[in-house]
Each structure stands twice: as structure tokens, then as C-alpha cells.
Design brief:
- The protein has one domain: Sandwich (Jelly Rolls).
- Helix content is 6%, strand content 34%.
- The chain contains two helices and 17 strands.
- Strands 1, 3, 5, 7, 12, 13, 14, 15 and 17 form a nine-stranded antiparallel β-sheet that branches. A six-stranded antiparallel β-sheet has the order 6-16-8-9-10-11, with no helix packed on it. The protein has a two-stranded antiparallel sheet with strand order 2-4.
- The longest helix has 15 residues.
- It binds 2-acetamido-2-deoxy-beta-D-glucopyranose (NAG) (5 copies).
- The site of one 2-acetamido-2-deoxy-beta-D-glucopyranose has 3 residues, from loops.
- The site of one 2-acetamido-2-deoxy-beta-D-glucopyranose (NAG) has 3 residues, from loops.
- It holds the Pfam family GH131_N.
């Protein structure tokens, strides 16, 4: 116990150089975890190329790239749900080589993408009531170009025709405009995070913070067909930021965490359009997990 505590303090001390804001208090999750995407403290980049990874080692990434080439393990203070220090941040990056080719398909030349994938679309995260957690932090040396639209975290339905939810950044493409004509357009400013429902309605927005961790959670109730969004900054407790909204949550899906940069001047979005060359962009993630929210349980 004593040696554990010394180890904890030593790790903490090494972060103090970066920030003094890391609290020593605990943020244990409080509901059963269905899938855990928190990166163990002893994981190396090579871990992500193997089945020991919390994520799928094969998807979704550039055709000729390995995860150990795509990811970084940045020296940043842990996010809220990585404390007490048992897991750490991982950064997903994209470059000109981040061109995905789906099985039997053609190169998705419109996109630059890399997304860590959790689950298989027909697992326990698709039944009952589940909450999808992630925290995100910006790398000032690898910023997004918000002239483009990005999809950063999403739960893609198994037929690939929609997402039960997504969080997007940048200027939204005309092709992604909401199918609900009642949606407001106030959420479309490029420097806002935009949370979209299954019909691409913007259901909540907040500014992209360039300095601190931003913590998000989305509860999908597969029985009552509702979703609800939670949010906080740094080490604050999550609080609901939308009402309980109705939507069709059927069809099964998978959570993906990373960056999908869409082109400008595009027709198909996936196969054509403009992408500048020489890019290097990243997003730092932490505290990724999916928990069982039966009975209203949510780790906040
Ligand atoms: C990390 O530690 C755990 C627990 O001791 C062990 O099971 C796992 O194999 C280790 N992983 C790596 C990549 O060393
Ligand atoms: C991957 O490598 C093959 C063989 O060199 C090449 O034909 C293909 O275009 C590469 N894919 C990408 C996305 O660069
Ligand atoms: C998906 O994962 C679950 C849980 O691990 C497993 O029971 C199920 O058989 C898997 N389904 C497929 C299609 O691989
Ligand atoms: C738009 O709002 C009106 C009034 O609340 C409602 O009757 C209508 O069903 C809504 N349209 C859509 C597409 O949701
Ligand atoms: C952002 O993207 C646009 C469109 O691809 C490009 O014209 C512009 O040069 C980029 N800006 C920066 C700062 O990279």
C-alpha cells in the first residue's frame, strides 16, 4: 500500500511540471463497465497493434499504417476518469497517408481518418441503457483546420447509414445538414463542438477549449429510444446539458474515437473533394469507457 502511494505521488510529481491542476482526489467510476477503452499505464504504442489493445487493432486507419505509427502517448496530465492514475492519455493523429480502404472497397480519397474502434456492433453495449464516456484535449502542435468538417467521436450504426450520435467540429458540409427542418443553425460556428443526433440535428454545442480537458458522456437508452448528453471541463463533475431526447436507437453500432476529416468542395464527401497536403493533426483522448446505466447509474 505504502509503495503504491509513493509510486502514485512520483507519477503525480512528474505531471506537476506540466500543470499544477491535477487533483489528488479519486474519480472512480461507479457503474459496471461494459467496455473499457482506458489505456493501461503500462501500454506501449506496440500494444495497439495487438489483441492486448483495448481497441480493434485492424480498424479504422490508413491502408498502409499501423496503430503504433498513428498514435502517440503524450505527456499530459491524466483526464478525470484516468485518475487515480491507472490509465493514461492517447493521441490519435492523421497525415496525408490516413486514407482508409474498406474491405473490398476503394480508397476513401475524400477523408483523412484514424479512429480507434470499440466493440463489434452486436455486443452488450447495444442493449439496455449504456453511457459512452470520453475526454478530449487539444495538441497545440497538431491543431485541426476548422475550415473542414471533422467527426471526432461517434457511434456508427451497423448499416453504416447513420450514427446514433456524433461529435463534430469545424464548418459543417451542406451534405451533413440536419434532416429535421426545425433544427437551429446557431450551433454551426466552426470553433464549436457540435453534438449531433441520429438525424444530424445539432442537439448541443460548446466551444472547443484549446487548453484543458473537456469531458463528454452520451447515454443511449435502447429500450426507451432516448439519448442525453453530459459535459464538464477539467476535473469537474459531469452534468446533463440536454433534456432526455427521443430518437430511434435501433440497429446496433460501434463507438469510434479519433479524427475523420472531411474534404471541402466535395460531392460524394467520401471519394472526392479537396484535402490540402502536408497535414499533421491530432486529438488527445482519455477516460474512454462504456458503462451500464441501468437504473439511472452514471459516473459523473
Ligand atoms: C500491463 O500489466 C498487466 C497487469 O500486470 C499485465 O496483465 C499486462 O500484460 C501488462 N501489459 C503490458 C503491455 O505490459
Ligand atoms: C498503400 O501501398 C500500396 C502499395 O505500395 C499503394 O498501391 C497504395 O496506394 C497505398 N495506399 C495508400 C492509402 O497510400
Ligand atoms: C460480439 O461480441 C460479443 C461480446 O464479446 C460476442 O458475444 C458476440 O459473439 C460478438 N459478435 C460477433 C458477430 O462477433
Ligand atoms: C417541427 O416542429 C413542429 C412544431 O413543434 C412539429 O409539429 C413538427 O413535427 C416538427 N418537425 C419535425 C420534422 O420534427
Ligand atoms: C485549411 O484548409 C483549407 C482548405 O483545405 C486550406 O485552404 C487552408 O490553407 C488551411 N489552413 C491552414 C492554416 O492550414
Amino acid at each position: 500500500m505504502a509503495s503504491l502511494k509513493i509510486h502514485f505521488m512520483a507519477v503525480l510529481a512528474s505531471f506537476t511540471a506540466i500543470t499544477t491542476a491535477v487533483p489528488t482526489s479519486h474519480y472512480d467510476t461507479k457503474c459496471p463497465i461494459t467496455l473499457d477503452g482506458r489505456v493501461p499505464i503500462n501500454a506501449t504504442l506496440k500494444t495497439f497493434d495487438t489483441d492486448a489493445s483495448p481497441f480493434n487493432p485492424d480498424f479504422t486507419k490508413g491502408q498502409n499504417l499501423t496503430w503504433s505509427q498513428i498514435l502517440k502517448l503524450p505527456a499530459v496530465a491524466p483526464s478525470k476518469f484516468d485518475l487515480p492514475i491507472h490509465s493514461k492519455a492517447v493521441e490519435v493523429t492523421i497525415s496525408d497517408a490516413s486514407i482508409f480502404v474498406p474491405g473490398g472497397g476503394t480508397q476513401q480519397l475524400g477523408f483523412r481518418r484514424a479512429g480507434l474502434l470499440m466493440g463489434n456492433g452486436s455486443d452488450a453495449t447495444n442493449v439496455g441503457v449504456k453511457t459512452f464516456h470520453w475526454s478530449v484535449k487539444q495538441d497545440l502542435n497538431a491543431k485541426m483546420n476548422l475550415t473542414h468538417e471533422y467527426m471526432n467521436v461517434w457511434h456508427e450504426a451497423n448499416d453504416y447509414a447513420s450514427n446514433h450520435f456524433s461529435i463534430n467540429a469545424g464548418i459543417m458540409l451542406e451534405q451533413d445538414k440536419p434532416t429535421d427542418s426545425n433544427v437551429t443553425t446557431t450551433g454551426l460556428a466552426k470553433n464549436l463542438w457540435k453534438i449531433l443526433d441520429r438525424k444530424n440535428n445539432v442537439i448541443w454545442t460548446t466551444r472547443i477549449d484549446w487548453d484543458v480537458w473537456q469531458n463528454f458522456a452520451v447515454t443511449l437508452d435502447y429500450e426507451k429510444n432516448t439519448l442525453q448528453v453530459y459535459y464538464s471541463r477539467e476535473y469537474d463533475s459531469l452534468h446533463p446539458v440536454t433534456a432526455l431526447l427521443s430518437q430511434d436507437n435501433s440497429g446496433g453500432g460501434q463507438m469510434q474515437i479519433g479524427l475523420l476529416k472531411k474534404p471541402t468542395e466535395t460531392t460524394s464527401v467520401v471519394y472526392d473533394g479537396y484535402q490540402e497536403s502536408g497535414i499533421y493533426e491530432g486529438q488527445i483522448y482519455g477516460g474512454v469507457f462504456i458503462e451500464d446505466s441501468a437504473g439511472g447509474c452514471i459516473s459523473a
